[in-house]
Amino acid sequence: MNLVESVTNEHLKEKTTELLPGDRVRVHLRIVEGDRERIQVFQGVVMRKRGGGINTSFTVRRIGAHGVGVERTFFLHSPRLEKIEVVSHAHVRRAQLYYLRGRTGKAARLREKRVDTRATTAAADEPETETAAE
């Protein structure tokens, strides 16, 4: 391993949230104002995910005041990034959702990806039964 790889591996986060385009996320970012720090939340749809390793970034788009779209790019391994909450998943067929820039209102909605939580919780709740009468 060379010197560059060893330095970048030190700054990688051990645990990161799995993001996909179309996910609605809530990004908690540490903002420094003078000598004070505060947490600012940016909630929107993941438009794209780029790069690899330490350079991995993702772009989140939300609709701000007066219907103006706001996009912001975050580095996944940034020390300013406090946490990422995935609110919901959407069914998309593209890796980059640039077409959302030209859409407003109901046309900008994405189809929600439904996850059956009953099946996974029911399987976890039931004890495994083996046939001992064989």
Can you walk me through this structure?
- The protein is mainly beta and 134 residues long.
- The chain has a domain at 19-106: SH3 type barrels (Roll).
- Helices cover 13% and strands 35% of the residues.
- The chain has two helices and five strands.
- A five-stranded antiparallel sheet has the order 4-3-2-1-5, with no helix packed on it.
- It is globular, with a radius of gyration of 20 Å.
In short:
The chain has 134 residues and is mainly beta.
Keywords:
134 residues; mainly beta; five-stranded antiparallel β-sheet; 5 strands; 35% strand
The CA-CA distance between the termini, in Å, is 55 Å
From the spread of the alpha carbons, the general shape counts as globular
- How many runs of DSSP E, i.e. beta strands? 5
Please state the structural category.
mainly beta
The name CATH uses for the topology of the domain at 19-106 is SH3 type barrels
Largest sheet properties: 5 strands, antiparallel
Share in helix:
10-25%
> How do the SSEs run, as a string of H and E?
HEEEEEH
CATH architecture of the domain at 19-106: Roll
